[in-house]
């Protein structure tokens, strides 16, 4: 009797949901706040078709930190024993149980098997569903959102979605749901300049506006070491970091710089720069690796389109020298652009989300349905360089925790393969891109009180690079300070990622000796991932842009400069028959004296002074700037 009643209740419950799945739906993912500029305008039409993609849980991901430490911690017997791409793919390939569970769930909800596909790498399940079907599957509501400045519309669900309890442990994330357009189509890349002409602010879904500081471009180059406080040139970098090195293993070594179309370098700008600072390199170009139809576009010009690429390539090429080729990962075609996911697809075939492309609501889709690049999406087609530098970033709060977790795990996989990944830490101190901060409840906005960390800086498996300056009036041999001109070094504490073991001692020491005076509501004081890891000069770079020398500021400069120095360390190790340095964080936090400790300056933002650069690691300049001879010695001592 009891049993019968129970089964009736059960049957009623099931029919109420119109679904035979036996476990209750549980909340799978939520979004804390909308990215900058997006507002809901109406319910999504129920018959709109969505390319629903279900990212399956990858086995062994819970162990990825220890697997990575095993090949990158200096005390590990396996130091330097990096993995092959095949081993990476094999280790993290979703289980048959996960695939079967998701298929059974979908078919039991009325999505016929003929409508369901599995990606090549076996990590995503795809089905085209109507909004009504997706709302039923995910127990959510879809809305149309509009971007304030560009008018672009985007369908996303309202703050959260749900999965049956027995399915949730097999799924990392579902798209399109809470995730917004994250393509890098414009210029919010944290690069600032001094020049005469203010730059237009292009509408940037997913990004805040750029606010360049303008104090005049330069007529005279001061290429003397006495003037490094006013203008940074390659010689200043060499002097600051004792960076003198003649590469010997350039055939084995590799370094890559990432740019997102329509960002483009200007060939004549490289020659203009080389003429004044590295005359033997006039005519030299980076090795172009176009990802998803990436081309160095020359149709549109302007600081916002050329400044980043010109800066990155002029400094990295001059610093590694003529004999070491620099690879340019030019990502995305001119029509659609691309996101970090498009790059990661190209570098690691196991990451590719779906044959024929990524999620059209977020990533560039190739072949381009909008008339751009007609070739197939790059998927595991590009062998990653040993050191890869990127000067683009989001606010962590722009993205959901699951989205950042999946991408961050991918950086760990590249680390397992022996790749060093550097990202600029952001240029707004403790505030996010464009100066936005967080309200309680994680909504972003101008004038909000709480610190707003940047991503991927907060991913524990990349190396985050902050910015320093030669103080006004100071000599190149004087200690640098945290950058306090035009930009402030991005730094702080993640709201998504726990602290990795390699930085616990350094960060705890900072928190004990110099406890920040801010209320704990303003910054994440729970012991989360702290950034940056290291820093390098980011003020007053002389860069040739569109035929003029400009003074450029930003962690955008610090990252490629650090990459060039680390590439020299790889060269020396490769010459001795050793492995490349790979994921450097566990090693650098254990070194003594390999960095110039920065003890002056702050990273203001959110209406505060931010944190202070102090003795030891700090959330402004990290461990400090490279001391190349000592850094080289430390890495050469490792097996
Ligand atoms: C979904 O629709 C697109 C566009 O019509 C098509 O290319 C794709 O193959 C479909 N996917 C599935 C799983 O049916
Ligand atoms: C750059 O070098 C050229 C050739 O040596 C020289 O004529 C020019 O004055 C230099 N430019 C600046 C701005 O110093
Ligand atoms: C602080 O960071 C941790 C991750 O280490 C996270 O779980 C927690 O929610 C964060 N706190 C806030 C207020 O965001
Ligand atoms: C600290 O930095 C400021 C500039 O931001 C500079 O004026 C001051 O001299 C520096 N102090 C020391 C001790 O380096």
From TrEMBL:
Binding annotation for Ca(2+): 597-598, 616, 618
SUPFAM superfamilies: Protease propeptides/inhibitors, Subtilisin-like
Reactions catalysed according to its record: Release of an N-terminal tripeptide from a polypeptide
Top EC class for this record: hydrolase
Domain of life of the organism encoding this protein: Eukaryota
UniProt-recorded Gene Ontology molecular function terms: metal ion binding; serine-type endopeptidase activity; tripeptidyl-peptidase activity
Function, in words: Secreted tripeptidyl-peptidase which degrades proteins at acidic pHs and is involved in virulence.
Chain intervals for the UniProt region annotation (Disordered): 184-213
Main localization (coarse): secreted
Cofactor notes: Binds 1 Ca(2+) ion per subunit.
Active site residues of this protein: 308 (charge relay system), 312 (charge relay system), 556 (charge relay system)
Any one GO cellular component localisation term in the record: extracellular region
Signal peptide span: 1-18
Pfam families per the UniProt record, alphabetical: Pro-kuma_activ (PF09286)
Designated name of the protein: tripeptidyl-peptidase II
The EC number(s) this enzyme carries: 3.4.14.10
Cofactor annotation: Ca(2+)
Keywords: Calcium, Glycoprotein, Hydrolase, Metal-binding, Protease, Secreted, Serine protease, Signal, Virulence, Zymogen
Organism this protein belongs to: Hermanssonia centrifuga
Domain Peptidase S53: 231-638
Transmembrane helix recorded as keyword: no
GO biological process, one term: proteolysis
Localization per Swiss-Prot or TrEMBL: Secreted, Extracellular space
